[in-house]
């Protein structure tokens, strides 16, 4: 019987290796580096699931997952299933969600400057808002870093008046029940200055408000009205830009910082490209929506001559008062008016 020292072939092979190679083998076995864990970013929006915006975002999500080789996955909750914007912000704070789409009014208390573009009866045309934004977008977007959010551009369109009775004069609006988003205290005070009757409701309740007579007038971009089906409960649309309604996608910075630098770049590039596309297409989308409203029997009303100027004058005084009261920075408000003066007087740079 062989009483010698027998060893497994594998062990003998390992012992025959140089010491430094044995050390490497042991290190790799004990300290194996796991593959990068995928980061799921959950984003809520009021946009309907079948809307063009949601289609664009799903395409962006697929592209991000491909470019990051599955390390980053965006999951969108559409149609307001996660609640209104204030509830979404609460869920982001406690980690149930990581981002959402918002309007300027959702950050009104914490970041007043972001509401400058949406002040009533400031801009008259797409050329004006474009010129101002070329000079001020970067400043306004930069403020989100202090709120621990990362954004990817601004998209917006002009709100118009949708109503069940013709609105062609300032007097036609007085005494009417006009919708405003919950928490929008600037619009609330503006309506009071205009002697209107503001009714604050979340976006998800507006259609019911129109159906039940709780609301007489809503102001919203026509393409949004079509997407949200509000156009089915109104008879008239007044062809007058009331305010520039803007939206943006914001992701909690804590979540964004979990991504590698390369993956952050991918997410920023893809989402910024999507928002640039949406924003660039906004004038055409607005025009197409107005045509769609006309085709289904919503009558288009032109404001009577001089009415727009009267509203501008009343709101200019109001907007100045709100700046002086601290609703938004006076210096940025004056800067915006300075750019407006340039574009209107042919002195634009």
Description:
With 349 residues, the protein is α/β, with parallel strands linked by helices. The protein has one domain (39-344): Bacterial extracellular solute-binding protein, family 7 (D-Maltodextrin-Binding Protein, domain 2, 3-Layer(aba) Sandwich). It contains 13 helices and 10 strands. Strands 1, 2, 3, 4, 5, 8, 9 and 10 form an 8-stranded mixed β-sheet that branches. A two-stranded parallel sheet has the order 6-7. Helix 3 (52-67) runs antiparallel to helix 11 and helix 5 runs antiparallel to helix 13. The protein is globular, with a radius of gyration of 27 Å. The termini are far apart.
What's a concise summary of this model?
This protein has 13 helices and 10 strands.
In round numbers, the mean pLDDT is: 90
User: Shape from CA axes?
Assistant: globular
Q: Count the domains.
A: 1
Give the name of the CATH architecture.
3-Layer(aba) Sandwich
Which fold does the CATH topology refer to?
D-Maltodextrin-Binding Protein, domain 2
How far is it from the N-terminal to the C-terminal residue, by CA?
100 Å
Number of helices: 13
In the CATH scheme, the class would be: Alpha Beta
**Largest beta sheet, briefly?**
8 strands, mixed
Specify Rg, calculated over alpha carbons. 27 Å
What structural class results from the helix and strand content? alpha/beta
Topology:
Blueprint lengths: L8 H7 L3 H12 L8 E6 L7 H16 L4 E6 L7 H10 L4 E5 L22 H17 L6 E3 L3 E9 L6 H4 L3 E5 L3 H9 L3 E5 L4 H7 L4 E4 L1 H6 L8 E17 H4 L4 H35 L3 E3 L5 H18 L5 H15 L5
Parallel strand pairs: 1-2, 1-3, 6-7, 9-10
Antiparallel strand pairs: 3-9, 4-9, 5-8, 5-9
Helix pairs in contact: 3-11, 5-13
